[in-house]
């Protein structure tokens, strides 16, 4: 019993069996939890803001703003810009007197790691334009990533690679430079030491050829530190130009100036190379007026070479006997010979040599039409436009309206006007057989139409070449000794209220010339000795 009792008291509850575990279940939850954590972390990383734009885009925006001088936009693209950021840029633009700046990026920004920031750079070429020398340089922009944006890491070297605190750029401009004006032998004629008449010509050339003569100022761009130049970054000299070489011959110019010392009156002399029209000398004495090129005078008896050529072309023979009274009324105007002498009947050649104005005036009215004489005068350059390179008047021969005007015009009076340059061109036309525009500078600088050259009739040229030598060898009105081979014509004219002009035109070899003396009286007495002295000053050195 006792065994039973013991069994009852000692009975325990039945042991509950643990349900069998499903293999891998706990590991599944752990993996799932791990995946959740991983996804969460990744989500945090993905949600962080990304850097906006690119280093290359920022570099281009910065350079475009710099080109437009939009310094406020530039400043916003810079990391920690200095207080004088705009001042530095404006100072460079102003100091170099720039008109514009242009930039070209060579390569896209390269990005590389450095410390804890991402850095980039962009290489570029800056081209500066202004009054200074051509200036271009290569540089680079350094960029950094800051607060998810690309910014320019600025320093003075961003403006120019050699700039740093204490350094600046400056433009240095030298004095104006000009091209020299030369005589034909290479000597300068635009210096204070040149003769007054020569300086006068140089002064007349300057306005016409200003663009050629002015070559600007030499300039340079310097890198400066504490006010002292470090080195020159760019420079240019004045434009390179050849000198302006004129046709002046100093030897002929000196001979002309010396010859005019024979008179103390206002006078002028011009000499040309007959075959080319080149002005070899232009001399003025007394006063600053350029009588040689700008004086408008009645040519007087020297114009009778033109009238004689018309008469000869229309059939008059140099040996035809004509009448030469001291005075004569022609067409209502009273003519008289410069010498106040009459010579009776004599060959036209001799009448021409003796300056028989009464003969020439009468023949012009009886044998020539006014339009005919005007046409022949045109062949000798009267009314013809020309451009010697300096201011100069043209010769005028208005068509005479009646016999009185024709008689006066035929002896170079009335409304006929010419300068010493014009009359030198008349002498050159006889010597060369063709009138051509005189010039002081190379032909390419004063181009003329080929029709400007006007050939004379060969028969007229031949006749005139026989008449003009006779003037200096046969005229008894003066005893001036000219060098052999000289041909010329003296003359006088009334000018203004009682003033008398003394003229001489002529040629020898390839030299043609003309001179006038104001208040000089008869040409044979006043102008002829000056002409002889001029030619003697050139003896042994013929113009050819």
Automatic annotation (TrEMBL):
Signal peptide: none annotated. The keyword Membrane applies. The keyword Hydrolase does not apply. Residues 268-535 form the Penicillin-binding protein transpeptidase domain. Residues 1-26 are annotated as: Disordered. Keywords: Membrane, Transmembrane, Transmembrane helix. It holds the Pfam family Transpeptidase. InterPro entries: Beta-lactam/transpept, Beta-lactam/transpept-like, MecA_N, PCN-bd_Tpept. Residues 54-166 form the NTF2-like N-terminal transpeptidase domain. This is Cell division protein FtsI.
């Amino acid at each position: 019993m006792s065994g039973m009792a013991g069994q009852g008291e000692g009975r325990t509850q039945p042991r509950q069996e643990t349900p069998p575990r499903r293999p891998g279940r706990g590991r599944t939850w752990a993996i799932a939890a791990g995946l959740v954590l991983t996804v969460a972390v990744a989500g945090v990383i993905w949600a962080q803001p990304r850097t906006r734009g690119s280093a290359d885009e920022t570099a281009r925006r910065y350079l475009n703003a710099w080109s437009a001088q939009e310094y406020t936009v530039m400043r916003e693209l810079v990391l920690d810009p200095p207080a004088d950021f705009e001042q530095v840029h404006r100072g460079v633009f102003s100091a170099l007197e720039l008109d514009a700046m242009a930039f070209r990026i060579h390569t896209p920004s390269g990005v590389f790691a450095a410390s804890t920031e991402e850095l980039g750079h962009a290489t570029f070429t800056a081209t500066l334009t202004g009054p200074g020398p051509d200036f271009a340089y290569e540089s680079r922009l350094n960029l950094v990533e800051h607060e998810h944006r690309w910014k320019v890491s600025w320093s003075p070297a961003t403006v120019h690679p050699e700039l740093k605190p204490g350094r600046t750029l400056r433009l240095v401009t030298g004095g104006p430079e000009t091209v020299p004006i030369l005589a034909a032998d290479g000597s300068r004629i635009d210096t204070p030491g040149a003769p007054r008449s020569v300086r006068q010509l140089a002064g007349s050339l300057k306005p016409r050829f200003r663009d050629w003569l002015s070559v600007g100022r030499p300039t340079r761009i310097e890198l400066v530190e504490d006010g002292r130049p470090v080195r020159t970054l760019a420079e240019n000299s004045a434009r390179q130009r050849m000198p302006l070489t004129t046709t002046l011959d100093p030897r002929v110019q000196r001979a002309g100036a010396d010859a005019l010392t024979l008179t103390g009156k206002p006078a002028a002399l011009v000499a040309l190379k007959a075959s080319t029209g080149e002005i070899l000398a232009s001399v003025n004495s007394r006063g600053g007026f350029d009588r040689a090129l700008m004086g408008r005078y009645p040519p007087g008896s020297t114009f009778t070479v033109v009238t004689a050529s018309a008469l000869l072309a229309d059939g008059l023979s140099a040996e035809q006997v004509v009448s030469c009274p001291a005075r004569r009324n022609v067409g209502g105007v009273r003519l008289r010979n410069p010498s106040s002498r009459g010579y009776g009947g004599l060959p036209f050649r001799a009448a021409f040599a003796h300056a028989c104005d009464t003969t020439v005036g009468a023949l012009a009215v009886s044998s020539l039409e006014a339009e005919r004489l005007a046409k022949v005068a045109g062949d000798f350059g009267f009314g013809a436009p020309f451009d010697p390179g300096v201011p100069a008047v043209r010769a005028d021969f208005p068509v005479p309206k009646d016999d009185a005007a024709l008689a006066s015009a035929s002896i170079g009076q009335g409304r006929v006007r010419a300068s010493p340059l014009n009359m030198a061109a008349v002498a050159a036309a006889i010597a060369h057989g063709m009138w051509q525009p005189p010039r002081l500078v190379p032909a390419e600088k004063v181009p003329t139409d080929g029709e400007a050259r006007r050939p004379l009739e060969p028969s007229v040229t031949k006749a005139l070449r026989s008449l003009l030598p006779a003037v200096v060898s046969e005229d008894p009105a003066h005893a001036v000794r000219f060098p052999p081979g000289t041909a010329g014509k003296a003359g006088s004219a009334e000018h203004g209220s009682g003033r008398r002009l003394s003229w001489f035109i002529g040629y020898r070899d390839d030299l043609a010339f003309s001179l006038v003396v104001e208040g000089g009286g008869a040409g044979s007495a006043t102008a002829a000795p000056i002409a002889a002295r001029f030619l003697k000053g050139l003896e042994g050195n013929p113009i050819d």
